[in-house]
Amino acid sequence: MSRNILVITALMLLVLTLPGISTAKLKVVATLNDLGWIAEQVGGDDVEVSVLCPPHQDPHYLPAKPSLAKKLKKADLLLYNGLELEIGWLPLLIETARNPKIKPGSRGELECADALEHILDVPTGHVDRSKGDIHPLGNPHFLLDPRNGVKVALLIAERMSELDIDAAERYKQRADMFQASVEKRLPEWEALLSASRNCPVIVYHQHWEYLLNWLDIQTIGSIEHRPGISPSPRHTKDIINLGRSQKCVYIIAATWDNLKIAKKASERMDAPLIILPGATGAMEGAEGYLGLFDYICKELSRGGVDGVRNE
Ligand SMILES: [Zn+2]
User: Fold this and answer.
1) Residue 290: how many CB atoms within 10 A of its CB?
2) What separation in Å is there between the alpha carbon of 189 and the centre of ligand 1?
3) Cα 81 to ligand 1 centroid, rounded to whole Å
4) CA angle at residue 288 from 297 to 283, to 5 degrees?
5) Confidence of residue 123 (pLDDT cuts 50, 70, 90)
6) In the chain, domain spans
7) C-alpha 274 to ligand 1 mean position (Å)
8) Residues 163-181: pLDDT tens digits?
9) Can you list the alpha helix ranges (DSSP code H) found in 98-167?
10) Distances in Å between the alpha carbon of 95 and those of 33, 57, 58, 86, 185?
11) What percent of the chain has pLDDT over 70?
12) How confident is the model at residue 159 (pLDDT cuts 50, 70, 90)?
């Protein structure tokens, strides 16, 4: 080791041990890649972010591996989507982690759905999760509307400020910057899809309701019988008839959906299939939360020209 490196190392150690200078970062664990990305924008250098569910994985069904509980052991703040999206795996991971900071009801856990005023698709009748209903409290995929991403960022900034008061001003500033960057892009994304307004589309899973609601595109049905339940032959027949009679313009599926079924339905309906990233980073070119909407809006505006109909 050269003399210069030794001097620099000694100086760094001195700075780190000086009283009153804290280098500890807020340890944030986010369940979803979208939330992790937003947390990084808001937290900047004041936080260390890790994510539990990889972007290519359907967040309804993440295997609760011990390595994930390990990430939660040292967390100061757990950010999760909520509305029972993660109910199949997160409670078990929290229990295994035995970290009092993030236990349910503590200030170290934040259900990001709390940022929303309006939840879509709230069931009105009896809901039985044992029969496979995976949206029992309404549609949990609200991060697919970038305006909801902003609301979530502002809520995250509030909670980070509460847990790390010294950096409160910086959290607020960064959340404001994030809001400005999203709001600047909204008209561009909306303009790309202006020709699709009121067009009828069919989705595989009800993953896209907030996105389509924002863009005024009309969902007329889903290939899944109910959220999380594979289509019966009867339902498949009905949805194909519906798609044909309503002149469905395209079918949307996420990379993790059953694409074999989606392609078959697309062929029989003679409507192209558009496969989209269901989360930030789920497909190449959809990196970052803003990049996700760049990708999705561009693909939808092309109307599935490379879809199965043209293969
Ligand atoms: Zn879902």
Assistant:
1) 19
2) 24
3) 12
4) 65
5) confident
6) 24-186, 193-310
7) 18
8) 999 999 999 999 999 999 9
9) 146-163
10) 22, 22, 22, 14, 40
11) 88
12) very high
Expressed in angstroms and rounded, the spacing between residue 125 Cα and the centre of ligand 1 is: 18
**Structure-token pair, residue 233:** 């032959």
Q: Which fold has domain 193-310?
A: Rossmann fold (3.40.50)
Distance 128 CA to ligand 1 centre (A): 15
Going from the Cα of 2 to the center of ligand 1, the distance in angstroms, rounded, reads: 56
Q: pTM higher than 0.70, yes or no?
A: yes
> What's the gap in Å between 25 CA and the centre of ligand 1?
33
Going by pLDDT thresholds of 50, 70 and 90, the confidence category of residue 10 is: low
- Contact indicator for 270, 244 with CB cutoff of 8 Å: yes
Note the CATH number of domain 24-186: 3.40.50.1980
Among the ranges 24-28, 128-132, 299-303, which has the highest mean pLDDT value?
24-28
Q: 24-186 and 193-310: same fold?
A: yes
